[in-house]
Amino acid sequence: MMEKKKSKKSTEGSNGDGCWLLNGNTRLTFGCITVFALLVRVIVSLNSYSGAGDAPKFGDYEAQRHWMEITLNIPAKKWYQNSTVNDLTYWGLDYPPLTAYQSYAHALFLHYFHPDSVALFTSRGHESPKGKLLMRWTVLSSDVLIFFAAAIYFVIVYHANRGKNKQQHMAWHLALILLGPCLILIDHGHFQYNCISLGLTIGAVAAILSKNELVACVLFSLAMNHKQMSAYFAPAFFSHLFGKCLRHRNPLLRVLQLGLAVVGTFILIWRPYLYSVDAVKEVLSRLAPFERGIYEDYVANFWCTTSVLIKCLSATLLGVLLSMVQQIKAPSDLVHEKSILLPLLPATLLALEEPLLFRWLTYFALLSMFPLLCRDCLILPYVALLILFVLIYYIPGIRPTKKRESSPTGLKKLAMILVLLCSFFLHIVYVTLRPPQKYPFLFEAVIMLLSCSQFVTIAAYSNLKQWMLESSIWMEKEKKVQ
Fold it and tell me: Using N-to-C axis directions, what is the helix angle for 213-224 and 234-246, rounded to 10°?
Protein backbone atom coordinates (compact mmCIF):
# COMPACT_ATOMS: atom_id res chain seq x y z
CA MET A 1 0.00 0.00 0.00
CA MET A 2 2.78 2.39 0.92
CA GLU A 3 4.50 1.81 -2.45
CA LYS A 4 1.25 2.43 -4.34
CA LYS A 5 0.65 5.66 -2.45
CA LYS A 6 4.20 6.77 -3.11
CA SER A 7 3.86 5.94 -6.80
CA LYS A 8 0.60 7.84 -7.06
CA LYS A 9 2.09 10.85 -5.30
CA SER A 10 5.06 10.81 -7.66
CA THR A 11 2.78 10.68 -10.70
CA GLU A 12 0.71 13.59 -9.44
CA GLY A 13 3.84 15.59 -8.74
CA SER A 14 5.14 15.08 -12.24
CA ASN A 15 1.96 16.61 -13.65
CA GLY A 16 1.78 19.50 -11.24
CA ASP A 17 2.74 23.07 -11.92
CA GLY A 18 6.48 23.21 -12.45
CA CYS A 19 7.17 19.95 -10.59
CA TRP A 20 8.03 18.17 -13.84
CA LEU A 21 11.36 20.03 -13.72
CA LEU A 22 12.46 17.48 -11.14
CA ASN A 23 12.21 14.81 -13.83
CA GLY A 24 15.69 14.10 -15.17
CA ASN A 25 14.38 12.60 -18.40
CA THR A 26 12.57 15.82 -19.29
CA ARG A 27 15.65 17.91 -18.60
CA LEU A 28 17.72 15.59 -20.76
CA THR A 29 15.17 15.75 -23.60
CA PHE A 30 15.06 19.54 -23.46
CA GLY A 31 18.85 19.64 -23.41
CA CYS A 32 19.12 17.42 -26.48
CA ILE A 33 16.57 19.48 -28.41
CA THR A 34 18.37 22.70 -27.50
CA VAL A 35 21.79 21.38 -28.52
CA PHE A 36 20.43 19.99 -31.79
CA ALA A 37 18.68 23.30 -32.58
CA LEU A 38 21.96 25.10 -31.93
CA LEU A 39 23.89 22.73 -34.20
CA VAL A 40 21.37 23.24 -37.01
CA ARG A 41 21.89 26.99 -36.72
CA VAL A 42 25.65 26.57 -36.83
CA ILE A 43 25.41 24.46 -40.00
CA VAL A 44 23.13 26.99 -41.71
CA SER A 45 25.50 29.82 -40.72
CA LEU A 46 28.29 28.13 -42.69
CA ASN A 47 26.45 29.05 -45.90
CA SER A 48 26.24 32.36 -47.73
CA TYR A 49 24.43 35.48 -46.50
CA SER A 50 22.74 38.62 -47.76
CA GLY A 51 24.98 40.66 -50.04
CA ALA A 52 28.04 38.43 -49.81
CA GLY A 53 30.71 39.96 -52.06
CA ASP A 54 28.16 42.25 -53.68
CA ALA A 55 29.84 45.67 -53.60
CA PRO A 56 29.37 48.57 -53.12
CA LYS A 57 26.53 48.34 -50.55
CA PHE A 58 26.47 44.56 -50.05
CA GLY A 59 23.34 43.52 -48.04
CA ASP A 60 21.83 42.95 -44.59
CA TYR A 61 25.06 41.45 -43.27
CA GLU A 62 26.92 44.68 -44.05
CA ALA A 63 24.04 46.76 -42.65
CA GLN A 64 24.28 45.00 -39.28
CA ARG A 65 28.08 45.23 -39.26
CA HIS A 66 27.96 48.93 -40.19
CA TRP A 67 25.58 49.66 -37.30
CA MET A 68 28.15 48.11 -34.98
CA GLU A 69 30.82 50.32 -36.55
CA ILE A 70 28.71 53.47 -36.07
CA THR A 71 27.49 52.78 -32.52
CA LEU A 72 31.02 51.97 -31.39
CA ASN A 73 32.71 55.05 -32.83
CA ILE A 74 30.27 57.94 -32.35
CA PRO A 75 28.17 59.12 -29.35
CA ALA A 76 24.67 57.69 -28.86
CA LYS A 77 23.06 61.10 -29.43
CA LYS A 78 24.40 61.10 -33.00
CA TRP A 79 23.53 57.53 -34.01
CA TYR A 80 20.48 58.68 -35.98
CA GLN A 81 21.90 62.00 -37.24
CA ASN A 82 23.28 62.42 -40.74
CA SER A 83 26.86 63.74 -40.63
CA THR A 84 30.28 63.42 -42.20
CA VAL A 85 31.01 60.40 -39.98
CA ASN A 86 27.52 58.90 -40.18
CA ASP A 87 26.26 58.86 -43.76
CA LEU A 88 22.65 57.73 -43.41
CA THR A 89 22.45 56.89 -47.11
CA TYR A 90 24.87 54.04 -46.43
CA TRP A 91 22.87 51.68 -44.22
CA GLY A 92 21.81 54.30 -41.72
CA LEU A 93 20.16 53.00 -38.55
CA ASP A 94 16.43 52.55 -39.19
CA TYR A 95 15.36 50.48 -36.18
CA PRO A 96 14.45 51.65 -32.66
CA PRO A 97 17.11 52.42 -30.03
CA LEU A 98 17.22 48.92 -28.50
CA THR A 99 18.60 47.62 -31.80
CA ALA A 100 21.26 50.33 -31.62
CA TYR A 101 22.20 49.24 -28.08
CA GLN A 102 22.37 45.64 -29.26
CA SER A 103 24.67 46.73 -32.10
CA TYR A 104 26.87 48.58 -29.61
CA ALA A 105 27.15 45.54 -27.33
CA HIS A 106 28.10 43.34 -30.29
CA ALA A 107 30.53 46.01 -31.51
CA LEU A 108 32.40 45.81 -28.20
CA PHE A 109 32.69 42.06 -28.69
CA LEU A 110 34.00 42.41 -32.26
CA HIS A 111 36.34 45.24 -31.32
CA TYR A 112 37.94 43.13 -28.61
CA PHE A 113 38.65 40.15 -30.88
CA HIS A 114 38.96 41.81 -34.30
CA PRO A 115 39.17 45.65 -34.24
CA ASP A 116 39.53 45.95 -38.01
CA SER A 117 36.01 44.60 -38.55
CA VAL A 118 34.41 47.64 -36.86
CA ALA A 119 36.96 50.37 -37.57
CA LEU A 120 35.32 53.65 -38.65
CA PHE A 121 35.27 54.08 -42.47
CA THR A 122 37.94 51.46 -43.25
CA SER A 123 35.74 48.52 -42.28
CA ARG A 124 33.09 49.10 -44.95
CA GLY A 125 32.45 45.85 -46.80
CA HIS A 126 34.65 43.93 -44.35
CA GLU A 127 34.29 40.20 -45.03
CA SER A 128 37.29 38.48 -43.48
CA PRO A 129 36.83 34.87 -42.27
CA LYS A 130 37.39 35.90 -38.66
CA GLY A 131 34.95 38.78 -39.00
CA LYS A 132 32.29 36.47 -40.45
CA LEU A 133 32.79 33.98 -37.63
CA LEU A 134 32.38 36.68 -34.99
CA MET A 135 29.33 38.16 -36.72
CA ARG A 136 27.66 34.75 -36.90
CA TRP A 137 28.48 34.21 -33.24
CA THR A 138 26.63 37.40 -32.25
CA VAL A 139 23.44 36.02 -33.81
CA LEU A 140 23.89 32.57 -32.25
CA SER A 141 24.46 34.00 -28.78
CA SER A 142 21.48 36.36 -29.09
CA ASP A 143 19.29 33.47 -30.20
CA VAL A 144 20.31 31.24 -27.30
CA LEU A 145 20.14 33.91 -24.61
CA ILE A 146 16.78 35.37 -25.66
CA PHE A 147 14.78 33.21 -28.09
CA PHE A 148 15.77 29.82 -26.64
CA ALA A 149 15.18 31.01 -23.08
CA ALA A 150 11.79 32.52 -23.97
CA ALA A 151 10.71 29.38 -25.86
CA ILE A 152 11.54 27.13 -22.90
CA TYR A 153 9.75 29.52 -20.54
CA PHE A 154 6.68 29.53 -22.78
CA VAL A 155 6.55 25.73 -23.14
CA ILE A 156 6.82 25.27 -19.36
CA VAL A 157 3.97 27.71 -18.67
CA TYR A 158 1.78 26.63 -21.58
CA HIS A 159 1.90 22.92 -20.67
CA ALA A 160 1.87 23.37 -16.88
CA ASN A 161 -1.57 21.78 -16.31
CA ARG A 162 -2.02 19.63 -19.40
CA GLY A 163 -1.67 16.27 -17.62
CA LYS A 164 -1.65 13.25 -19.95
CA ASN A 165 1.33 12.92 -22.32
CA LYS A 166 2.49 16.35 -21.19
CA GLN A 167 6.21 15.64 -21.42
CA GLN A 168 5.96 14.23 -24.95
CA HIS A 169 3.87 17.18 -26.12
CA MET A 170 6.28 19.63 -24.49
CA ALA A 171 9.25 18.08 -26.30
CA TRP A 172 7.40 18.13 -29.64
CA HIS A 173 6.30 21.73 -29.14
CA LEU A 174 9.74 22.95 -28.09
CA ALA A 175 11.34 21.23 -31.09
CA LEU A 176 8.93 22.94 -33.48
CA ILE A 177 9.58 26.36 -31.94
CA LEU A 178 13.38 26.07 -31.81
CA LEU A 179 13.66 24.41 -35.23
CA GLY A 180 11.28 26.70 -37.10
CA PRO A 181 12.85 26.87 -40.58
CA CYS A 182 11.84 30.46 -41.40
CA LEU A 183 13.55 32.11 -38.44
CA ILE A 184 16.69 29.99 -38.82
CA LEU A 185 17.03 30.79 -42.52
CA ILE A 186 16.50 34.52 -42.08
CA ASP A 187 18.66 35.04 -38.99
CA HIS A 188 21.43 32.50 -39.52
CA GLY A 189 21.36 32.35 -43.30
CA HIS A 190 20.26 35.71 -44.69
CA PHE A 191 21.59 37.43 -41.51
CA GLN A 192 19.39 39.37 -39.12
CA TYR A 193 18.50 39.46 -35.42
CA ASN A 194 14.76 38.73 -35.45
CA CYS A 195 15.36 36.21 -32.67
CA ILE A 196 15.64 39.09 -30.20
CA SER A 197 12.32 40.84 -30.85
CA LEU A 198 10.47 37.54 -31.38
CA GLY A 199 12.04 36.08 -28.23
CA LEU A 200 10.93 39.09 -26.20
CA THR A 201 7.42 38.70 -27.64
CA ILE A 202 7.29 35.01 -26.73
CA GLY A 203 8.49 35.94 -23.24
CA ALA A 204 5.67 38.49 -22.99
CA VAL A 205 3.10 35.86 -24.03
CA ALA A 206 4.47 33.42 -21.44
CA ALA A 207 4.36 36.15 -18.78
CA ILE A 208 0.67 36.75 -19.52
CA LEU A 209 -0.06 33.02 -19.32
CA SER A 210 1.63 32.96 -15.92
CA LYS A 211 -0.40 36.00 -14.76
CA ASN A 212 2.59 38.39 -14.74
CA GLU A 213 1.05 41.23 -16.73
CA LEU A 214 3.57 43.86 -15.59
CA VAL A 215 6.47 41.69 -16.77
CA ALA A 216 4.61 41.13 -20.05
CA CYS A 217 4.28 44.90 -20.58
CA VAL A 218 8.00 45.43 -20.03
CA LEU A 219 9.01 42.55 -22.33
CA PHE A 220 6.68 43.57 -25.13
CA SER A 221 7.77 47.21 -24.83
CA LEU A 222 11.35 45.99 -25.26
CA ALA A 223 10.28 44.01 -28.32
CA MET A 224 8.75 47.12 -29.91
CA ASN A 225 11.89 49.07 -29.09
CA HIS A 226 13.98 46.47 -30.88
CA LYS A 227 12.01 46.19 -34.11
CA GLN A 228 9.06 48.40 -35.00
CA MET A 229 7.38 45.46 -36.78
CA SER A 230 6.56 44.15 -33.29
CA ALA A 231 3.86 46.82 -33.23
CA TYR A 232 1.76 44.41 -35.32
CA PHE A 233 1.26 42.48 -32.09
CA ALA A 234 0.28 45.61 -30.14
CA PRO A 235 -3.50 45.42 -30.79
CA ALA A 236 -3.52 41.88 -29.42
CA PHE A 237 -1.61 42.78 -26.27
CA PHE A 238 -3.58 45.98 -25.73
CA SER A 239 -7.03 44.45 -26.16
CA HIS A 240 -6.22 41.40 -24.04
CA LEU A 241 -4.68 43.39 -21.18
CA PHE A 242 -7.37 46.07 -21.35
CA GLY A 243 -10.04 43.37 -21.15
CA LYS A 244 -8.35 42.00 -18.05
CA CYS A 245 -8.08 45.46 -16.52
CA LEU A 246 -11.84 45.94 -16.91
CA ARG A 247 -12.35 42.83 -14.78
CA HIS A 248 -9.87 43.89 -12.12
CA ARG A 249 -11.23 44.94 -8.73
CA ASN A 250 -9.67 48.36 -9.32
CA PRO A 251 -9.60 48.90 -13.11
CA LEU A 252 -8.17 52.43 -13.08
CA LEU A 253 -5.31 51.47 -10.77
CA ARG A 254 -4.48 48.44 -12.90
CA VAL A 255 -4.48 50.47 -16.12
CA LEU A 256 -2.19 53.00 -14.41
CA GLN A 257 0.21 50.25 -13.28
CA LEU A 258 0.47 48.68 -16.72
CA GLY A 259 0.71 52.09 -18.38
CA LEU A 260 3.58 53.11 -16.10
CA ALA A 261 5.41 49.87 -16.93
CA VAL A 262 5.15 50.64 -20.64
CA VAL A 263 5.98 54.35 -20.38
CA GLY A 264 8.84 53.68 -17.97
CA THR A 265 10.40 51.15 -20.34
CA PHE A 266 10.12 53.52 -23.30
CA ILE A 267 11.65 56.40 -21.32
CA LEU A 268 14.56 54.22 -20.26
CA ILE A 269 15.26 53.10 -23.84
CA TRP A 270 14.78 56.53 -25.41
CA ARG A 271 16.60 58.52 -22.68
CA PRO A 272 19.58 59.61 -24.87
CA TYR A 273 17.15 61.27 -27.30
CA LEU A 274 14.75 62.95 -24.88
CA TYR A 275 16.83 66.11 -24.53
CA SER A 276 14.86 67.80 -27.33
CA VAL A 277 11.84 67.34 -29.58
CA ASP A 278 14.07 67.54 -32.65
CA ALA A 279 16.21 64.65 -31.41
CA VAL A 280 13.13 62.48 -30.99
CA LYS A 281 11.91 63.48 -34.45
CA GLU A 282 15.26 62.47 -35.94
CA VAL A 283 14.90 58.96 -34.55
CA LEU A 284 11.25 58.69 -35.58
CA SER A 285 12.08 59.85 -39.10
CA ARG A 286 14.50 56.93 -39.38
CA LEU A 287 11.90 54.42 -38.13
CA ALA A 288 9.38 55.60 -40.75
CA PRO A 289 11.60 57.16 -43.43
CA PHE A 290 8.92 58.60 -45.71
CA GLU A 291 11.43 61.09 -47.06
CA ARG A 292 13.05 58.24 -49.00
CA GLY A 293 9.84 57.88 -50.97
CA ILE A 294 7.33 55.08 -50.59
CA TYR A 295 7.21 54.63 -54.33
CA GLU A 296 10.96 55.17 -54.84
CA ASP A 297 11.43 56.59 -58.38
CA TYR A 298 7.94 55.91 -59.72
CA VAL A 299 5.71 58.68 -58.45
CA ALA A 300 5.53 61.00 -55.47
CA ASN A 301 2.19 62.75 -55.38
CA PHE A 302 -0.52 63.16 -52.76
CA TRP A 303 -2.82 60.41 -54.04
CA CYS A 304 -0.17 57.71 -54.26
CA THR A 305 1.29 58.52 -50.87
CA THR A 306 -2.03 58.72 -49.06
CA SER A 307 -3.39 55.62 -50.81
CA VAL A 308 -0.71 53.50 -49.15
CA LEU A 309 -1.51 54.92 -45.72
CA ILE A 310 -5.27 54.72 -46.15
CA LYS A 311 -5.33 51.24 -47.67
CA CYS A 312 -2.80 49.76 -45.25
CA LEU A 313 -4.37 51.38 -42.21
CA SER A 314 -7.93 50.41 -43.14
CA ALA A 315 -6.94 46.85 -44.06
CA THR A 316 -5.04 46.43 -40.80
CA LEU A 317 -7.88 47.83 -38.71
CA LEU A 318 -10.42 45.60 -40.42
CA GLY A 319 -8.17 42.61 -39.89
CA VAL A 320 -7.67 43.11 -36.17
CA LEU A 321 -10.88 44.86 -35.07
CA LEU A 322 -13.00 41.74 -34.59
CA SER A 323 -10.31 39.98 -32.59
CA MET A 324 -9.71 43.08 -30.45
CA VAL A 325 -13.40 43.37 -29.61
CA GLN A 326 -13.52 39.69 -28.69
CA GLN A 327 -10.48 40.00 -26.41
CA ILE A 328 -11.85 43.08 -24.62
CA LYS A 329 -15.18 41.30 -24.10
CA ALA A 330 -13.65 38.05 -22.84
CA PRO A 331 -9.84 37.98 -22.62
CA SER A 332 -8.49 34.47 -23.20
CA ASP A 333 -4.91 33.24 -23.52
CA LEU A 334 -3.16 35.73 -25.76
CA VAL A 335 -1.73 33.19 -28.16
CA HIS A 336 -5.18 32.64 -29.63
CA GLU A 337 -5.62 36.34 -30.36
CA LYS A 338 -2.26 36.76 -32.01
CA SER A 339 -2.97 34.18 -34.69
CA ILE A 340 -4.49 36.94 -36.85
CA LEU A 341 -1.75 39.56 -36.47
CA LEU A 342 1.67 38.24 -37.37
CA PRO A 343 0.79 34.65 -38.16
CA LEU A 344 3.96 32.63 -38.01
CA LEU A 345 4.96 33.24 -34.39
CA PRO A 346 1.52 32.75 -32.83
CA ALA A 347 0.84 29.80 -35.14
CA THR A 348 4.00 28.16 -33.81
CA LEU A 349 2.91 28.78 -30.22
CA LEU A 350 -0.48 27.29 -31.13
CA ALA A 351 0.97 24.20 -32.82
CA LEU A 352 -0.59 21.95 -30.20
CA GLU A 353 -4.05 23.45 -30.70
CA GLU A 354 -3.95 24.03 -34.45
CA PRO A 355 -1.33 21.69 -35.98
CA LEU A 356 -2.75 21.84 -39.51
CA LEU A 357 -2.88 25.64 -39.52
CA PHE A 358 0.68 25.76 -38.18
CA ARG A 359 1.99 23.31 -40.79
CA TRP A 360 0.25 25.08 -43.67
CA LEU A 361 1.33 28.55 -42.60
CA THR A 362 4.94 27.51 -42.04
CA TYR A 363 5.16 25.98 -45.51
CA PHE A 364 3.79 29.04 -47.29
CA ALA A 365 5.84 31.40 -45.15
CA LEU A 366 8.86 29.46 -46.42
CA LEU A 367 7.58 29.66 -49.99
CA SER A 368 7.18 33.44 -49.74
CA MET A 369 10.85 33.68 -48.69
CA PHE A 370 12.10 31.42 -51.50
CA PRO A 371 13.10 34.19 -54.00
CA LEU A 372 15.07 36.02 -51.30
CA LEU A 373 16.84 32.86 -50.17
CA CYS A 374 17.67 31.95 -53.77
CA ARG A 375 19.42 35.30 -54.19
CA ASP A 376 21.42 34.55 -51.03
CA CYS A 377 22.41 31.09 -52.38
CA LEU A 378 20.57 29.34 -49.54
CA ILE A 379 18.57 26.80 -51.55
CA LEU A 380 20.27 23.79 -49.92
CA PRO A 381 19.56 24.95 -46.33
CA TYR A 382 16.02 25.83 -47.46
CA VAL A 383 15.33 22.29 -48.69
CA ALA A 384 17.12 20.66 -45.74
CA LEU A 385 15.19 22.64 -43.12
CA LEU A 386 11.89 22.01 -44.89
CA ILE A 387 12.55 18.25 -44.78
CA LEU A 388 13.64 18.49 -41.13
CA PHE A 389 10.45 20.38 -40.27
CA VAL A 390 8.28 17.69 -41.91
CA LEU A 391 10.17 14.91 -40.09
CA ILE A 392 9.72 16.59 -36.71
CA TYR A 393 6.09 17.41 -37.37
CA TYR A 394 5.26 13.78 -38.20
CA ILE A 395 7.31 12.05 -35.47
CA PRO A 396 5.38 8.79 -34.83
CA GLY A 397 3.74 8.60 -31.42
CA ILE A 398 4.78 12.13 -30.43
CA ARG A 399 2.66 14.54 -32.44
CA PRO A 400 -0.55 15.28 -30.51
CA THR A 401 -3.82 14.44 -32.23
CA LYS A 402 -7.29 15.59 -31.25
CA LYS A 403 -10.56 13.81 -31.70
CA ARG A 404 -12.36 17.06 -32.39
CA GLU A 405 -9.94 17.89 -35.19
CA SER A 406 -10.73 15.99 -38.36
CA SER A 407 -8.49 15.79 -41.40
CA PRO A 408 -9.65 17.69 -44.48
CA THR A 409 -11.77 15.59 -46.80
CA GLY A 410 -13.39 15.84 -50.20
CA LEU A 411 -13.09 19.17 -51.95
CA LYS A 412 -10.94 20.69 -49.20
CA LYS A 413 -8.38 17.93 -49.48
CA LEU A 414 -8.36 18.18 -53.28
CA ALA A 415 -7.90 21.95 -53.11
CA MET A 416 -4.98 21.57 -50.69
CA ILE A 417 -3.30 19.00 -52.95
CA LEU A 418 -3.67 21.28 -55.97
CA VAL A 419 -2.21 24.24 -54.07
CA LEU A 420 0.75 22.14 -52.92
CA LEU A 421 1.38 20.88 -56.45
CA CYS A 422 1.25 24.43 -57.72
CA SER A 423 3.79 25.54 -55.11
CA PHE A 424 6.09 22.64 -56.00
CA PHE A 425 5.84 23.60 -59.67
CA LEU A 426 6.70 27.21 -58.81
CA HIS A 427 9.86 26.08 -57.02
CA ILE A 428 11.01 24.23 -60.13
CA VAL A 429 10.09 27.06 -62.49
CA TYR A 430 11.88 29.67 -60.40
CA VAL A 431 15.23 27.87 -60.33
CA THR A 432 15.19 26.52 -63.90
CA LEU A 433 13.52 29.12 -66.13
CA ARG A 434 14.04 32.79 -66.84
CA PRO A 435 11.03 35.11 -66.75
CA PRO A 436 10.02 37.09 -69.87
CA GLN A 437 12.22 40.12 -70.41
CA LYS A 438 9.16 42.36 -70.30
CA TYR A 439 8.12 40.97 -66.87
CA PRO A 440 11.36 40.29 -64.95
CA PHE A 441 9.56 39.76 -61.62
CA LEU A 442 6.75 37.58 -62.94
CA PHE A 443 7.74 34.45 -60.98
CA GLU A 444 8.18 36.40 -57.75
CA ALA A 445 4.73 37.96 -58.25
CA VAL A 446 3.09 34.55 -58.74
CA ILE A 447 4.82 33.16 -55.63
CA MET A 448 3.68 36.16 -53.60
CA LEU A 449 0.14 35.87 -54.95
CA LEU A 450 -0.12 32.19 -54.01
CA SER A 451 1.39 32.76 -50.57
CA CYS A 452 -0.79 35.78 -49.87
CA SER A 453 -3.95 33.86 -50.82
CA GLN A 454 -3.10 31.28 -48.17
CA PHE A 455 -2.30 33.93 -45.57
CA VAL A 456 -5.65 35.62 -46.16
CA THR A 457 -7.46 32.27 -45.90
CA ILE A 458 -5.68 31.47 -42.63
CA ALA A 459 -6.49 34.94 -41.26
CA ALA A 460 -10.18 34.49 -42.05
CA TYR A 461 -10.17 31.01 -40.51
CA SER A 462 -8.42 32.30 -37.36
CA ASN A 463 -10.98 35.04 -36.82
CA LEU A 464 -13.87 32.65 -37.39
CA LYS A 465 -12.39 30.02 -35.08
CA GLN A 466 -11.80 32.58 -32.35
CA TRP A 467 -15.40 33.79 -32.42
CA MET A 468 -16.72 30.22 -32.57
CA LEU A 469 -14.62 29.41 -29.50
CA GLU A 470 -16.02 32.44 -27.70
CA SER A 471 -19.59 31.39 -28.61
CA SER A 472 -19.06 27.83 -27.37
CA ILE A 473 -17.65 29.10 -24.06
CA TRP A 474 -20.64 31.43 -23.65
CA MET A 475 -23.09 28.55 -24.36
CA GLU A 476 -21.36 26.35 -21.80
CA LYS A 477 -21.72 29.08 -19.21
CA GLU A 478 -25.40 29.46 -20.05
CA LYS A 479 -25.98 25.72 -19.56
CA LYS A 480 -24.29 25.81 -16.15
CA VAL A 481 -26.47 28.74 -15.07
CA GLN A 482 -29.64 26.88 -16.11
Answer: 160
